[in-house]
Amino acid sequence: MAGRHNNKLPSNLPQLQNLIKRDPPAYIEEFLQQYRHYQSNVEIFRLQPNKPSKDLAELVMFMAQVGHCYRDHLADFPQQLKDLLSYHHTMLDPDLRMTFCRALILLRNKNLINPTGLLELFFELLRCHDKFLRKTLYSHIVTDIKNINAKHKNNKLNTTLQSFMYTMLQDSNPTAAKISLDVMIELYRRNIWNDAKTVNVITTACFSKVTKILVAGLKFFLGRDEGEKQNSDSESEDDGPTARDLMVRYSTGRKTTKNKKKLEKAMRVLKKHKKKRKPEVFNFSAIHLIHDPQDFAEKLLKQLEASKERFEVKMMMMELISRLVGIHEEVVAVTSMDGFKRELDNFLQVTKILLFAAQASHQLVPPEIIQTVLMTIANNFVTDKNSGEVMTVGINAIKEVSARCPLAMTEDLLQDLAQYRSHKDKNVMMSARTLIQLFRSLNPQMLQKKYRGKPTEATSEAKIHEYGELTAKDYIPGAEVLDLDIKEEDGNREEDGWESASLSEEDEDGEWIDVHHSSDEEQKELAEKVQAMPAEERKAKAAAVSTNRLLTQEEFQKIRLAQLRKELNSAPGKSAKRKNIEIDSEDETRGELLSLRDIEHLHKKPKSDKETRLATAKAGKTDRKEYVKKKTKLNPFASSTNKEKKKQKNFMMMRYSHNIRSKNKRSFREKQLALREALLKQRKRLIK
Predict the structure, then answer these.
(1) CA–CA separation, 98 vs 379, rounded Å?
(2) Mean pLDDT score of the chain, rounded to an integer?
(3) How confident is the model at residue 580 (pLDDT cuts 50, 70, 90)?
């Protein structure tokens, strides 16, 4: 019995592999026999490389599994496999090619191969017309590079692979170039290759002649991920039940402990499911890592003017150009603004084009260029012949452009737009008032006197800089509200300034410790002291505080609150605007990028037409069948009863029947009793 199993050992490779891993020296003869068998199969394979070989595939996987047991004998085995793949990968059988790749991946996982040469080979294999192979290689490349940089950055390997990927992006095979780009984008998103070299290599994809590569590069810099977007769309489609649906489902029927527990469990599952959902992530830091954004934007603009791509691709290129111009404050906006003005004639996604125009505006763009854009928007959108929504979009766009480049707004245009503050449409009225509020803080002198509002400290200090003017301050504005010297608290302080960690005997009695909080009265006293100071004395104190010591986060918060208070405190010589104010410390500040909601924001929801209301009503009635009482017959083929037949008959046929005539002749008491019985029956049905 034992001899029969021993005879099967040379042909039973899984059993031999298991035994070798347990005791490698004891089975070296059997291994060498299989190794010679493998070499002979390789020689046969080289004669006919396009022919499938099951024996060779099994032997290759066997050698890869036991490669760590006999390193000396299999020293040339990985290089031999790489040579076979590099020379014959185009004509190899798909299954055999996949086996060779899996064997190399297994050897790499055991750290028997240098990663540089193997990854370069895998990038070359991306040219093969084998989708499953490309998917396997893509996942291995990303995982391997992530594992290499897990403990610390391997800069030497990263530099070599990035240089190689730069050549792969220029590859003639579009599939290999696209997957190489996907690898770099995925490594950047995982914070593995998040350096400037990776970003600047990806910039070359934005000039590719292949549309897929071009769109992938544009989406990377715009912060859009197609996979995340599809996931979010699928989640919104298959959203499942909401909290209200669960409440309705478990509240109908009898209120039992079992139903209550089911509801609590369902709510916990729903809450856990909501936590797993991730919102769409926008990572704009890649735009800041571009070495030469000016040249990059000019090349993109030139490509856009000569492009024959779809309108959606052109819109993406325009959006990237506008972000580059707005974030880096480039002068390329001088030539690109004319393009935005021409595109306004195309009303397809016109709000996005307005958003790009506002995004590309900044203080270094010549005001004459942006004035033409503002006049174009005003003449085409802000007119009484348009609807209220169109006028609102136009005023919002003008407001966003003016906020980024105040010099572009003329006094005549501002006064014309301010007249809409009393428009009959609420959306137009609110948009005009937000524009007036913007210029109250930027330059109140441009507004008419009745629109300037009550003067405050902030408005008295407001000033629009001239074109190209910069104000460099050697102090932190608002630092005059802080004290020159740090107040030492009553607690123990060491010589180096740190509080002592030892507890005194008085603190050990477990009593509460009084913590000092700044009250409203102290803030008012401090504001009055600062207001009493002359302007020069304020600047001198702010400079002294800014240069003498480091400020803490609490002190910066005090400065910020003092600056916000200036917007509410009345100007010197004027009556107080508000006495008691509440300042929110988490006010939204204007960021680098605008959203489409800033342009399309409507203060009042537009009325729905009849077709929309009918569609909404029908959509709400689709699931009402479960709440309707179902009338089922025991025998579906049985005829209806006489009572049911009476309901279907015409009234004129039943008019002179005995039942109808007797109903009319009933007395008041009979009608009262009949109504009572009907109400009792209805009550019983509701209780059930």
Answers:
(1) 64
(2) 79
(3) very low
Angle at 229 between CA 228 and CA 235, to 5 degrees: 90
Residue 441 main-chain phi, psi, to 5 deg: -90, -30
Cβ atoms 91, 51 nearer than 8 A: no
Q: Per-residue pLDDT for 397 more than 90?
A: yes
Query: How far does Cα 547 stand from its chain's mean position?
Result: 40
Residues 6+ apart with CB under 8 A from 76: none
Q: What is the dihedral of CA 362, 368, 370, 371, to 10 degrees?
A: 130
| Per-residue model confidence (pLDDT) at position 521 | 60
pLDDT at 273: 67
What distance in Å separates the CA atoms of residue 644 and residue 646, rounded to the nearest whole number? 5
Question: Which residues are within 8 A (CB) of 161 and not within 5 positions of it... i.e. 6 or more apart?
Answer: 116, 119, 120, 145
pLDDT digits (tens, 9 = 90+) for 596-640: 888 888 887 777 778 888 888 777 776 666 555 666 777 878 888
Check if the beta carbon of residue 393 is closer than 8 Å to that of residue 401: no
Q: Which of 393, 404, 394 is nearest to 369 (CA)?
A: 404
Question: Cα–Cα distances in Å, from 151 out to 112, 117, 369, 497, 573?
Answer: 19, 21, 52, 36, 65
Q: How confident is the model at residue 459 (pLDDT cuts 50, 70, 90)?
A: low
Query: Which residues lie closer than 8 Å to 418 by C-beta, 6 or more apart?
Result: 432, 435, 436, 447, 448, 451
Contact by Cβ (8 Å): 423, 429: yes
pLDDT at 138 over 90: yes
Sign of CA dihedral 103, 108, 111, 112: positive
Q: Which helix (H) or strand (E) holds 271?
A: helix 257-276
Alpha helix segments (H runs only) across 209-256:
211-222, 226-237, 243-251
Could you say which DSSP state residue 68 is in? T
Tokens of 325: 């111009």
Higher pLDDT, 676 or 637: 676
Q: CA torsion, points 372, 378, 381, 384, in degrees to nearest 10? A: -150
Residue with the larger pLDDT of the pair 224 and 116: 116
Q: What is the DSSP letter of 683?
A: H
Structure tokens belonging to residue 184: 């770099």
Mean pLDDT is lowest, of 13-22, 224-233, 298-307, for: 224-233
User: Can you tell me the distance from the alpha carbon of 115 to that of 108, in angstroms, rounded to the nearest whole number?
Assistant: 7
What sections of 503-595 are H helices per DSSP?
A: 520-532, 535-548, 553-566
Contact 192, 149 (CB under 8 A): yes
**pTM assigned to the model:** 0.69
Side-chain half-sphere exposure of 112, counting CA atoms within 13 A: 25
User: Tokens standing for 371?
Assistant: 């004035």
